[in-house]
Amino acid sequence: MIAIIDYDAGNIKSVEKAMNYLGEEARITRDRDLILNSDKVILPGVGSFGDAMSKIREYQLVNTIYDVVDKGTPFLGICLGLQLLFQTSEESPGVTGLGLLEGKIVRIPDAPGIKIPHIGWNSLTYRPEATLYQGLEDNPYVYFVHSYYLQAAHEEDVAATTEYVTHIHASVERDNLFACQFHPEKSGSVGLQILKNFIRIGEAD
Fold first, then answer.
1. Among 23, 149, 154, 195, which is 20 to 30 Å from 102 by CA?
2. DSSP strand pairing (40-43 vs 103-107)
3. How many Å apart are CA 98 and CA 87, to the nearest integer?
4. Are 134 and 155 in contact (CB under 8 A)?
5. Are 146 and 117 within 8 A, CB to CB?
6. Which helix (H) or strand (E) element contains residue 21?
7. Roughly how many angstroms between the first and final C-alpha of the chain, as a whole number?
C-alpha cells in the first residue's frame, strides 16, 4: 500500500489517481500508523513553502516523516514535496524545512521574455544509474509548475537537471529518499514510467 501524505496541499488527488491507474492501492492520509506501515510514502503538493510547513507541524507529521525515512521506506517528494525535504526557501524566509537533505530553495531569476512561474514541458538530463529514470530515452520531457527551484548542496544527490533561465536541480535521490520538482503524474508516459520505477523499488531485492 502507498500512503500519500495529506497536509491540505493542492494537487494530491492527481497523484492518487496516477497510482490507481498503475494498479496500486493508494491512500491519502495523515494517520501515523497507516503511513508508517505503508510500503511506499509520497509527499506531493503545490503551494507555498511556509504554509506547507505550518500545516505539516499542525498535523504533527514531522516526526512521522522522519520515522518513515529512518525506517528505510521508499519516500517520494513531488514538486513542493521536493522543496520541503530541504532546509530553507527564499519563498518563506525564516521558515525551516524538514532538512532531510542539504540544500536551499531559491527563486528562478527574472530574464527578458521568460515567464515565471515556469509552467510547461522541459527536457531532463539524468544520471544513467538514477533509479527513477530507468527505461527512459535520453532527454525525456516532463511537466513543471514552479517559481522556486532547488540548489542541492551535494552534487551526488542530484539525479536529474533541466535548464530554465538557470541550471535547475530537477530531481534528487539519496538512499531511500527520492524527489522530483516536476509532476510525474502530469507527465504522460514518461511520468508513469518514473512512478512505476518508484513503485518497483525493493521489489526485486
1. 195
2. unpaired
3. 6
4. no
5. yes
6. helix 12-21
7. 18
Does the active-site annotation cover 180? no
Do residues 144 and 94 make contact, with C-beta atoms less than 8 angstroms apart?
Answer: no
pLDDT confidence of residue 204: 56
Active site residue 169: no
CATH class of 2-200: alpha beta
Place of cell 530574464: 111
Please report the pLDDT score of residue 10 as a whole number.
81
Domains in the chain: boundaries: 2-200
Q: What's the confidence (pLDDT) of residue 161?
A: 98
Look up the pTM and report it.
0.97
User: Cell 535520453, residue?
Assistant: 138
Residue tagged active-site, from 118, 146, 169, 183:
183
pLDDT, residue 159, reads 98
Q: Are 35 and 45 in contact (CB under 8 A)?
A: no
Scanning the structure block, which residue is given the C-alpha cell 532531510?
Answer: 100
Q: What are phi and psi of 46, to 5 degrees?
A: -130, 155
Please provide the size of the chain in residues: 205
Annotation says 163 is catalytic: no
Out of 79, 146, 173, 180, pick the active-site residue.
79
54 C-beta neighbours (distance < 10 Å), count = 15
